[in-house]
Design goal:
Layout: H1 3-19, H2 21-58, E1 61-65, H3 71-82, E2 87-93, H4 95-106, E3 125-130, H5 136-144, E4 149-153, H6 156-198, H7 200-208, H8 213-252, H9 268-296
Helix pairs in contact: 1-2, 1-8, 2-6, 2-8, 2-9, 6-9, 8-9
């Protein structure tokens, strides 16, 4: 197939969009609606994963040091903790800092701790944060094995629950995206099939005069691809616009009392590259494949 023929077929595919504008609008509307649902599922899964990640970052392991360990021993313990894999942050909390923290938590009842400055029973400790909360049990075991450490407090049950939530949400998000993509393919295929059926006589005539399958099929594939592109652009605008309005509403509502937790929501600009890729791949492939399989039946004359 030479360049002039290919150029003609591409023009035909573009012309068919306007020649069958009502069916084109119907196809774009159906595919866009399905893509918006896919985008909503993706955004929901991303935000839940981000929120779980934020909560994970707040989890801390506290490593308590024996009272008979001197400053040199504390430095040695710190060096050993730093060799443990999976730790993202390590902070030393002295006995004095621990006492002051307890005072702040007690507020007006801080006087109850008067006199403990001279006989501070609180231990020195290290506060550890993990890169991945799923490693908590392994890290805890390594910390407990360090000489001079008498106790390690780790919210193991809470960490296990977070890992389970993260895995469940990821699985549900993938399943929803796949199911909605399949639904989009079926619906758009049926919609395009109506367009092809309305032009079946034209296809039959072209076959009788000797046109090849590729010559007949390419304009429809171009048409389906263009429908996919336009649907992707429309869906992206709707999803990002709606998501922007939702974030604005949440920020002004009582939901904002969550404070720093609100910042864990993924911004619309961070969503843009991922949604653009998902919509482009799903939209264009759905349009092209739907056209390909819809016209195949009418090529058998």
């Amino acid at each position: 197939m030479n360049g002039s023929v290919l150029k003609y077929l591409l023009k035909e595919g573009y012309r068919n969009l306007w020649a069958n504008k009502y069916m084109t609008l119907a196809s774009i509307g159906v595919l866009s609606a399905c893509l918006v649902l896919v985008g909503a599922a993706v955004m929901f899964a991303e935000n839940v994963a981000s929120l779980v990640g934020y909560v994970e970052d707040q989890n801390e392991i506290v490593v308590y040091i024996n009272d008979d360990v001197d400053e040199a021993g504390i430095s040695t313990i710190e060096s050993q903790i730093q060799t443990v894999g999976g730790i993202s942050e390590l902070r030393f909390v002295s006995k004095e800092e621990a006492l002051q923290s307890q005072r702040e938590q007690l507020g007006d009842d801080a006087y109850l701790l008067d006199g403990f400055e001279e006989d501070n029973i609180l231990p020195n400790s290290f506060v550890v944060r993990l890169q991945d909360v799923s490693q908590m049990a392994e890290v805890k075991a390594q910390l407990e094995a360090i000489e001079g450490v008498y106790q390690v407090d780790a919210p193991q049950k809470f960490a296990d629950a977070l890992v389970s939530v993260r895995n469940i949400v990821s699985s549900i998000g993938i399943i929803l995206a796949v199911v909605l993509t399949v639904v989009a393919f079926v619906i758009i295929a049926n919609t395009i099939r109506l367009t092809v059926f309305a032009r079946r006589k034209e296809i039959n005539i072209m076959k009788y005069v000797g046109a090849t399958d590729s010559f007949i099929r390419i304009p429809f594939i171009v048409e389906g691809g263009l429908i996919g592109i336009m649907s992707s652009i429309l869906s992206l605008a709707v999803c990002l616009g709606g998501y922007h309005l939702l974030l604005g509403w949440l920020e002004e509502s009582d939901f904002a009392i969550l404070g720093s937790g609100f910042s864990s929501f993924v911004s619309e600009w961070s969503m843009l590259p991922m949604l653009a890729v998902v919509f482009s791949v799903v939209g264009v492939l759905t349009g092209i494949l739907s056209s390909y399989f819809s016209v195949r039946k009418h090529l058998k004359v």
